[in-house]
Amino acid sequence: MSGSDAPAVSVLVVNYNAGPHLGHCLERLCEVAKEWPAPDAGLEIVVVDNASTDGSLEAVRKLEDPAPAVRLIASARNLGFGAACNLAARETAGRYLLLLNPDAWTDAASLRRLVDALDADARLGVVAPSLHYPEGSPQFVWAPPVGIVGEAIQRFRNRFEGRAWNHGLLPRLLRPLLGQGWFSAACLLVRRSAFEEVGGFDENFFLYFEDADLCLRLAKDWRQRQVKGARAWHLRGVTTGRPGNRLLSAEVERFYRASQLRYYDRYRPRWERSYLRRRLRLKFSRVADEEQRTALLRLLEGA
235 Cβ partners below 8 Å, 6+ apart? Predict the structure, then answer.
């Protein structure tokens, strides 16, 4: 599509065993689309399924007269989040890309605010809404730059996620000291030209840290900010077995640590890389399950 036929926003949803939450996400998107008539603000919706086995794709087929139609790209294997987003981006035409988890949703007014922000500033590459749990309590959408200091600060912030100062005042104080930081890809609107300029997501990050990596690379030439008044809701942990983002399954732990080590190797100074390995070696050596302990220690050998 080109010119007036191209939608304003391409919504990219990556699904992996999201169960009924995918259906809820798509229903909300169809509601948004009805308030966004083409050509000035049309939507297209693409779901990339990473070889789900829970029957969640039935949600796509059960939609009654969706507007717009929901396109499905079914992968024979789990590509990982970043690679699946890249695939969806290549198959779409919107000038903006809405990255949206299958357990997340937004509303038409919020999406309009995000689009208006990008329309108003040609050097703005990424905009984020405020993020909330389904019952309305605040959820982190921004985090300080990944590193020993940044991750330590984030661990402290995690203890007080529900406090208003943790989402407004503290980020404003931290940014001048630590740097831009990064926004969660649970719900994030990205300018397509910026996304393509940096090559999209780094597919070497199978799961986790891919959004931190993307924001870091975009920050070299593009501004990023949170848009006041734009809201999204996110259940969190549906596809990774991390309810409330507190518990890591053995498999997800390996994905997380592999991506963490990759990020540190690529961007952090030598002393931070060494410190992280020492800390993880001590942590992994205490894992009771021998098979899991061995698998985690092997990550350090390959890093």
Answer: 21, 103, 104, 133, 134
- Whole-number Å distance between alpha carbons of 191 and 202: 17
Each residue's pLDDT tens digit, 187-216 = 999 999 999 999 999 999 999 999 999 999
- What does the mean pLDDT of the chain come to? 91
Select from 69, 95, 70, 99 the least CA-distant residue to 87: 99
Query: What is the separation, in whole angstroms, between the first and last Cα of the chain?
Result: 43
Instruction: List Cβ<8 Å contacts ≥24 apart for 164-171.
Output: 164/138, 166/138, 166/140, 167/130, 167/138, 167/140, 167/141, 167/142, 171/142
Query: What's at 211, amino acid-wise?
Result: D
Helix (H, G, I), strand (E, B) or coil at 217: helix
- Cβ contact 258:250 at 8 Å: no
Element (H, E) at 74: strand 70-75
- Please name the residue that has the structure tokens 């039935």: 58
CB atoms within 10 A of CB 110: 21
* DSSP structural state of residue 231: E
Three-state secondary-structure class, residue 227: strand
d(CA 121, CA 135): 33
Give the helix ranges, DSSP H, for 63-168.
81-90, 108-120, 148-158
Percent with pLDDT over 70 in the chain: 92
Coil, helix or strand at residue 181: coil
Rounded Cα–Cα distance for residues 18 and 94 (Å): 25
Question: How many CB atoms are located within 10 Å of the residue 278 CB?
Answer: 11
What does pTM read for this prediction? Answer: 0.92
